Amino acid sequence: MPASFMEKLQNGERPSCSERRQLVRIVASEILEVSKCPAKKHVSEIARQMVIAYPKSFRDEINSQVVGSGYDSLLKQLVCRIDNFKRAKAISTPLCGTLEESTKKRKLFYGCINSDPQLLVGETSELQQEKKEKLLVMFQNNESDVKTIYDLMTSTYTSQRNNIQSGKETKDLLDEWPYLFQPAGMKAHFKELTGIDINNSFEESASKDTSVPSDICLEQLPATPCIVVCGENPLTASVYMVAVDQTIVNDHLLSFTEALYLMFSLYYILNISYPVELGATLEFLQRCIFRINPHKGTKVEKREKKRAYSVNPRVLSLTSKIAAFDWGE
Predict the structure, then answer these.
(1) What is the dihedral of CA 12, 17, 19, 20, to 10 degrees?
(2) Is the pLDDT reported for residue 325 higher than 60?
(3) CA 127, CA 147: separation in Å to the nearest integer?
(4) Residues 69 and 10: beta-carbon distance below 8 Å
(5) Chain-wide mean pLDDT for the chain?
(6) What's the rounded Cα separation, in Å, for the pair 28 and 325?
(7) Res 94 pLDDT > 80
(8) DSSP annotation of 67
(9) Residue 87: what pLDDT?
């Protein structure tokens, strides 16, 4: 590589797109000099070592948060270039063990760190039931002590997970754990489930449009979590609702931020896969906003005869462009 390029790496600067492509071409060519059919694990190790050597120049990240393994985009480029080299030489054999994972059954609790909790020391089923009943009374009395709600939802997390994993319907969960679908309770559950403390950092986007709950034709709502906008314009609406399983679970959210929190969290709380058509958008939120970054697997619903990526290529492309963008002073 040119001296100017190597100086960039030494200074921790990100190479331009053309410089990166040139590097990928050279490395891919050298790999094929050693092996005509390199294994994916070997190409992966090369990409990993490149990122270890020059993390500031090659690592996949956004806002200093590593995306996926940190070298998925570089690995993807090397794999594609190697395949291109081989096609150019009329070699029909595909790259052995390509970047895409072989079709496997997805883990049920992708992105979660505490999906099957046990009762904490000192907790009993009786105590859990007492706290559950206290939460129900608080909800019926429209109490708004956020700290108490958060603490009680945290301490009854095990019972909530047991109910969810037993297969209870959304309507039953809404009756038994109403705060699970309110901001304070949802944040408590999501924190225990994923280890992620949700913060306020969103501003726009939306889904359906209506005025009041009675106007909604529930049969027309998707089964997956969605935001219902109360008003004529998603950007000017003053009230939002969230639905899942064609059931309105919260009909009075005053900010889009809170609606987005609840909508996204329900994918994890209720173990719902991302719809294929929204997979890239939801994965971008997952990895770059909520910072849930598993190295393997996917939460996108399984598609027959489709390759499964550990990180969606569109998400990698967008995060790379954001990282490389010159934001100015």
Answers:
(1) 70
(2) yes
(3) 19
(4) no
(5) 81
(6) 26
(7) no
(8) P
(9) 53
Residue 196 to residue 209: CA distance in whole angstroms: 30
Residue 38 CA: distances (Å) to CA of 26, 74, 87, 241, 309: 15, 16, 14, 51, 19
Alpha carbon 219 to its chain's center: 27
> 180 falls in which pLDDT band (50, 70, 90)?
very high
Higher pLDDT, 120 or 220: 120
Rounded to 5°, the CA angle 299-60-306 comes to 35
Residue of 190, 196, 204, 308 lying closest to 256 (CA atoms): 204
Q: Which residue has the higher pLDDT, 11 or 291?
A: 11
CB count within 10 Å of CB 216 equals 19
Beta bridge partners of 241: 228
Write out the two tokens for 143.
Answer: 């109490």
Are 307 and 95 within 8 A, CB to CB?
no
Residue with tokens 């209870």: 168
C-alpha 291/C-alpha 35 separation (Å) is 37
Any idea which residue has 């909604």 for tokens? 216
- Residue 238 to residue 223: CA distance in whole angstroms: 24
Residues 275 and 224: beta-carbon distance below 8 Å: yes
Asked if residue 77 lies in contact with residue 267, where contact means CB atoms within 8 angstroms, the answer is no
pLDDT in tens, 5-36: 899 999 999 888 778 888 988 999 899 889 88
Name, in order, each residue with C-beta under 8 angstroms of 156's C-beta and a sequence gap of 6 or more.
Answer: 128, 131, 132, 135
Instruction: Record the pTM.
Output: 0.64
DSSP 239: E
- Cβ proximity of 288 and 312 under 8 Å: no
- In this prediction, residue 230 carries a pLDDT of 82
Cα gap 229→306, rounded to integer Å: 34
Cβ–Cβ < 8 Å for 11, 50:
no
| Percentage of the chain exceeding pLDDT 70 | 83
